[in-house]
Amino acid sequence: MGLAELSLIALAVAVVVGIVRNVNVGPLSLAISLVIGYYIGGVKIKDLIAGYPVNVFLMLAGITYLFAIANINGTLAKLTNFAVRGVRGNIALLPIVLFIVAFALSSLGPGAITICAMMAAPCMLLASKAKIPAFLMAVMVANGTQAGNMSPIAVAGVIVKGLAQKMNLPDWSFILWMNSLVYFFAIGIGAYLLFGGLKLWKRSGPADASAVMKVDAEPFTSQQYLTLAGIAVLVLGVIFFKVDIGFFGFLIGTVLILLKAADEEKVFKAMPWGAIMMVTGVTVLISLMGKIGGMALFADIMAKQSTPYTVTLVAGFWSGLISAYASTIGVILPAFVPMAPDLLAKIGAPSSDLLALLSSIILSGHVTDVSPLSTLGAIFIANAAEDQDKKKLFRNLLIWGLVMTPVGAVICWFLFTVLGIP
In the predicted model, what is the mean pLDDT of the chain? Predict the structure, then answer.
């Protein structure tokens, strides 16, 4: 067995061990990289270190530092509450409004996991009080966060941008974000129509308003206004002045800490260090696989199943299937994104198809994250209200995750290959 085969098996082992033993796959990947790369393959330590994505680390740390401040001081929660009050008791609009709120907050930078963690408890309680199906509420909010996950300043968007920079690809951040919005909006509308949204219109009215109108919506504090201003400056800087997201996030966050917008100790504790280590650690293993032929072998296997017309379908299916049991940002993005150009070359597809392939990989991977075996689904089950059947919710979310593996890939293939979007 050659090093290429060994590295591919090692990646699979890292994913399986991470799932079965519930350990962070990032440090595990670093350990495997040392054993296979240095002790077996003779790769120098400095070459292993060179595979560590410093740019991704700085971008993730900077953006999560800023949004940990916004979460700690209640800015994000208050934005949600004001949006919920805006439906004025129209229960049928509530899942749709919360989808939009989740999209907006996720797009601002925190990403799907953070926003789901913040919104799950109040949203599931609202669903209980307003008699909205728990499954419908969970799917709408989770897909809303996923719709914003590819924003140029959101966590997943930052990861892909960092990988793209390393691969010398164009900056497709805005296009990927818009593709994500279209994709998840279509899925959200489908879920709303299929799982009880239309029935809500038959009883929406003043009698159902109390559960919604009781949501706390006190005015913003001075610290929260400062935080909103800081986020606005970040967004404007990224869009119009092409500032570095990570460094600029640290700059704005530091100013907010000096202005006492939040407790710095709590902010550091709230940052998702585990997720940051997961993404960067796996990237080191993927980089090693690129050096010793593992990624080329992976591309060969997928190329045998694909044609230029079906590659988005095949890659999307495998991305979704693996993501249903593993982390999208920790495994799918670092493994599949760098492989995409090689895959196209092996099947003779033009390089102009790369954006469509990346869109399919990214979105198919994200759409299955509402599975209870992934983080987002688990968050909603953990925050279900007392009168909501957790076993039924688990079953429904599991079915959703499994069904969306082929369905999500087909939708991507239809949008990006058949219709030619983007």
Answer: 86
